[in-house]
Amino acid sequence: MPLLKLKDIHYYYGNIHALKGVDLEVYAGEIRTLIGANGAGKSTTLMAISAIFKPQQGEILYHGTSLAGRAPDEIVKAGLCQVPEGRRIFPGLTIQENLEMGAYCRRVKAAIAADLEMVYELFPVLGERRRQAGGTLSGGEQQMLAIGRALMSQPQLLLLDEPSLGLAPLMVEKIFSIIERIAGEGITILLVEQNAHAALNLADYGYVMETGKIILEAPAAELLRDERVKEAYLGE
Ligand code: ATP
């Protein structure tokens, strides 16, 4: 059984039909990626999974159970956590306070403290600067903070929305190797990216989205060799 399954998801912003019947599956332990151009509907798909937007049609199953009617915080408690596009950290709070916000659904203080240390081990730069305001971090470091904050909710499935956006190539490499390490710890990943090359090189399986529909899906290695993908998304 897939960990997450989207069945025929439709979403409208007013009269704009942004998702036109999206079917997508993610299995436990995998890295899956959703690639596509600006405006294809990738972020809307993640927002539907996180229950921030309620699809007008279709079904989202998590561990085989429908998520319909669940509030966004219940989705987080169930183990699904999104790292939003543009990081959305709290610039006026310290790095540590930002991370603690990620654990807002949790009660056990000792376990929260242990996870803070785990995040600082994964991102030493955050540990060194834990008392500084989040807003003093560079774009790449803010992306690390946003990922660290999501890890504080102890996710089973991490939804990442364009973590490479606006970052220099070296920083993109760093962030992607961290995503790989997180996956190695047993956290399942659904990665939304415009950087198709980096995403397909990291992922096990990929979906290609165009104007609200999945037009192609295959193991990532196959998509990297696909002529249509090469021409439209890899600049080859
Ligand atoms: P990006 O990489 O720019 O985030 P995306 O693939 O994530 O692109 P979405 O942001 O999901 O695409 O947008 C899908 C479609 O829905 C686009 O046509 C977009 O213009 C439209 N859209 C997104 N947000 C809104 C909104 N708040 N109101 C109206 N239309 C919207």
Layout of strands and helices, then pairs:
Layout (H helix, E strand, L loop, with lengths): L3 E10 L2 E11 L4 E6 L5 H8 L7 E6 L2 E2 L5 H6 L2 E4 L11 H7 L7 H14 L1 H5 L10 H13 L5 E5 L7 H16 L3 E6 L2 H7 L2 E6 L2 E7 H6 L1 H7 L3
Parallel strand pairs: 3-8, 3-9, 6-7, 7-8
Antiparallel strand pairs: 1-2, 1-4, 4-5, 9-10
Helix pairs in contact: 3-6
The structure holds adenosine-5'-triphosphate.
What does this molecule look like?
- Helix content is about 40%, strand content about 25%.
- It is of the alpha/beta class and about 240 residues long.
- The protein has a domain at about 1-80 and about 190-235: P-loop containing nucleotide triphosphate hydrolases (Rossmann fold, 3-Layer(aba) Sandwich).
- Bound molecules: adenosine-5'-triphosphate.
- Adenosine-5'-triphosphate (ATP) binds near residues 38 and 40.
- Adenosine-5'-triphosphate binds near residues 13 and 44.
Write a compact overview of the structure shown:
With 236 residues, this protein is an alpha/beta fold.
The average pLDDT value, as a whole number, equals: 93
Oligomeric organization of the protein chains: single chain
Write down the overall geometry.
globular
* Helix-strand makeup class: alpha/beta
Separation of the first and last Cα atoms: 36 Å
Q: Tell me the β content.
A: 25-35%
Give a quick account of the main beta sheet: strands, pairing sense, barrel closure: 6 strands, mixed
Number of strands: 10
Q: Cofactors and ligands present?
A: adenosine-5'-triphosphate
